[in-house]
Write a structure and sequence with these properties.
Rossmann fold; 4-stranded antiparallel beta sheet; 7-stranded mixed beta sheet; 11 strands; methyltransferase; Methyltransferase type 12; methyltransferase activity; 9 helices; transferase; 2 domains; alpha/beta
């Protein structure tokens, strides 16, 4: 489920906008607008006083969130260093290309977000943008949030999040996810693993099919995991069931939480 080729196929079949087409530009402009609000939070203002701000965009895809935040930082007269992190090299190449087009120089790192503690990078602000948490089940999101806390220099972690409880109350076995000029994109329920929490849905399009493993996170649970690794957590509401979690100042903790694995998930011999 963290295989780069599998992720590449999922995003291709799901037709997630990853270029500067009309939909892609709308995503970027929307991110610019949102970061215009987020950047006024007192914790972000505290970071901006440092002058040079190191931003790490985790699970960046083509970098919409990181570029938008860096752009806002530069507009305030600060220097911004931007690093994209993702498993998909093709997406990272586009992210660097798009950032240059926006006047922002950036670097790219092919890495597993759960193992950022191995990367040696440091950040003042880290973001998880694009509603990416469903890729991670609880044990993996613990590892991701904990790993992010190790790269932050007394900074802020921003997570775009939505409450999927409302989705689950009406989520059908067979669902129309998207429809455009290329035809429909359906997903169908296939399986659920009670130990990992993953639900497997099959993406169905005229171009092919592929399994997609998702965990249906809610805002409260994501906040609770943030609280384990950060001294304070705040939330900026965007809509009735979505918004932005801001986690401030990493705590010190036993690194075995993110480097180890519970026996229940260990390979059986």
């Amino acid at each position: 489920m963290f295989d780069p080729e599998s992720l590449k196929k999922i995003y291709k079949l799901f037709r997630w906008p990853e270029d500067l087409s009309k939909e892609g530009k709308e995503r970027y402009e929307g991110a610019l607008e949102e970061f215009g609000k987020i950047i006024s939070h007192r914790w972000i203002e505290e970071v901006l006083r440092r002058g040079r701000v190191r931003i790490v965009d985790i699970c960046s895809g083509t970098g919409v969130g990181g570029i938008a935040l860096a752009k806002r930082v530069v507009e305030l007269g600060r220097d911004a260093e931007l690093t994209f992190v993702d498993l998909r090299e093709d997406a990272l190449e586009k992210a660097v290309e798009f950032s240059r087009a926006a006047g922002i120089e950036a670097e790219a790192l092919v890495a597993d977000a759960r193992e950022l503690y191995k990367s040696g990078i440091e950040a003042d602000i880290a973001i998880l943008w694009g509603l990416s948490t469903p890729h991670f089940n609880p044990i993996d999101l613990v590892k991701l949030y904990g790993s992010v806390s190790t790269i932050l220099r007394d900074g802020v972690f921003i997570v775009e999040e939505a409450d999927r409880f409302t989705i689950m109350t009406g989520y059908k076995d067979f669902l129309l996810e998207r429809y455009d000029e290329r035809g429909p994109v359906f997903t169908a329920h296939y399986d659920h693993d009670p130990l990992t929490g993953y639900t497997t849905r099959i993406i169905l399009t005229k171009d092919g099919t592929h399994p997609m493993h998702v965990y249906f996170w809610d805002i409260a649970s994501s906040i609770a995991l943030s609280w384990i690794f950060f001294e304070d957590v705040d939330f900026m509401r965007r809509g009735a069931y979505s918004g932005y979690i801001l986690a401030h100042k990493p705590r010190k903790f036993d690194l075995n939480i993110i480097t180890g694995i519970p026996s229940v998930y260990a390979p059986r011999t």
